[in-house]
Every structure is written in C-alpha cells, then in structure tokens.
Amino acid sequence: MSAESHTLICLPTFNEAENIADLIAALRRATQTVGPFDILVVDDGSPDGTADIVRGLQAGGDAHLHLLDRGRKLGLGTAYRAGFDHAARHGHTHVFTMDADFSHSPEHVPHLWRAAASADVVIGSRYMPGGGVANWPWHRRLLSSAANALARWMLRLRAHDCTSGFRCYRVDLLARVGLDDIRSEGYSYLTEMLWRCQRHGARIQEVPIKFVDRRAGQSKISKREIWRAVLTLLRLRFARRR
C-alpha cells in the first residue's frame, strides 16, 4: 500500500481530556513514515472539555485533525458509524478505529496499516500468538477471554480476538456489509461488525498487539454492556440459522 492512501483514524471519546492531546501527538509521531493520516475525534459531549482541547489543537494548525462534537452521550457504536460515514464522504480508502486512552498503542498503527495491503479488515489482536494484555486484574482477563471464546463458538468467527476495537477497515467493504442494518450498541457493535464482515467474505487478518489498561481516567465498560453483549450473541446466532 502506498503512503498516498487516504486513511482516517476514528477516535470515539468521552472524558478523555487527560489523554487526547498526548494521544494525537503520539499518533503523529507513529505514522510520520506512512502518513499523514486524518484523525477524527468523535466526542460525546465530554464534560471534562475533551472537545475544547481538540479545538485548540486545530487552531494550532493541524489541518488533518477533525472534530465531531455530538453534544451528548450517544454510544460507541454510533461513534464508529459516524467515523465510517466521514471516511466515505471524504474519499478515504481505509478507516481505523481505536481507543483514545492509550490502551491501543499508536506504535501498532503502522503494522495494521501495512497488513491492510492484503486484507479487508485488520484486527489488533490480544489473543493471537505474540499478543497480550497488561495491567488487567484476573477477573477482567477471564471475562474477556470467555467473551471471545463464546463469540467464536456461537457465531463461528475465525478471528482470535472478536472484541478488539483496534481495527482497520477498507471503506469499500463497509458499503457492502449493511451498516444500516446493525442493531447493536456499545461494545457489542464490534462483534456484529466482525460477524457481518465475515459473512460478506471479507479477508480478515490479525496483527498481534499488547493491550495496556487505560493510562488515565475510568473504564467505561458496565454491567449493562455485558448484558447487551450476551443478547447480541443470541440474536446473531438465531439470525445465522435462518
């Protein structure tokens, strides 16, 4: 893939004022040999001023930095969709999704981008050989591993890491998978997206990453998200039999 490819990095944010400026700077450093990449921050009305920090960076002259301030908390799935729509409207060929809290290292972005030369979806994988997780308590490791195993079994997904939000998609693939039909919200959106991509014959590749628990701020995964994930698996399992 040539460095002239139009690539967007979508960063959904809610209360990431402690991280966002450092993350954007780190992304610029990490991608300087393969970029420049556009960055879209999709902020859900963060009361800590995340969007204002991004505006300040834009005012400082970063022409490749964009902000969608949605004003209220609309959820992770709709933030991803906003990023996909932005990429399609602005002629990008590839779009990344990643966390804005340094759980996904900017240093991995070039590795995923290069792998996208021969894939439709590239996943930053914690659970393939060479991947891993740092700073998680045992119960969170167990929950994540169990969720992945259950998703792989129920939906016959071939990826090692079905719930990773660190991905690179070909934009032309997204036009085929039926984004308007996705009913999942929050983190369940990731599982349904992968399921739909696989059903549409996407070439899916994984790149090992080291996932590090968030550097600053609080985790946003709730019991409600876990319940949603279970319901999503049941719904997609039933749909798979039809």
Average predicted confidence as pLDDT: 90
How many individual domains? 1
Portion of residues in beta strands equals 15-25%
What structural class should be given to the helix and strand makeup?
alpha/beta
Number of helices: 8
**CATH homologous superfamily title:** Spore Coat Polysaccharide Biosynthesis Protein SpsA, Chain A
Largest sheet: 7 strands, mixed
Q: Largest beta sheet: what is the strand line-up? A: 3-2-1-4-7-5-8
CATH class: Alpha Beta
The gross shape turns out to be globular
Q: How far apart are the first and last residues' alpha carbons, in Å?
A: 38 Å
- The CATH topology comes to Spore Coat Polysaccharide Biosynthesis Protein SpsA, Chain A
Topology record:
Layout: E1 7-13, H1 20-30, E2 38-43, H2 50-59, E3 65-69, H3 76-89, E4 94-97, H4 109-115, E5 121-125, E6 132-134, H5 138-155, E7 167-170, H6 171-174, H7 188-199, E8 204-208, E9 210-212, H8 223-241
Parallel strand pairs: 1-2, 1-4, 2-3, 5-8, 6-9
Antiparallel strand pairs: 4-7, 5-7
Helix pairs in contact: 5-8, 7-8
Structural summary, described in words:
- By secondary structure, the protein is of the alpha/beta class.
- It has one domain (7-241): Spore Coat Polysaccharide Biosynthesis Protein SpsA, Chain A (Alpha-Beta Complex), CATH 3.90.550.10.
- It has eight helices and nine strands.
- The chain has helices at 20-30, 50-59, 76-89, 109-115, 138-155, 171-174, 188-199, 223-241; strands at residues 7-13, 38-43, 65-69, 94-97, 121-125, 132-134, 167-170, 204-208, 210-212.
- The strands form two sheets. It has a seven-stranded mixed β-sheet, with helices on both faces. Strands 6-9 form a two-stranded parallel sheet.
- Helix 5 runs parallel beside helix 8 (223-241) and helix 7 (188-199) runs parallel beside helix 8.
- The longest helix has 19 residues, at 223-241.
- The chain is globular, with a radius of gyration of 17 Å.
- It starts with 6 loop residues before the first strand and ends with a helix.
- Residues 1-5 have low confidence and may be disordered.
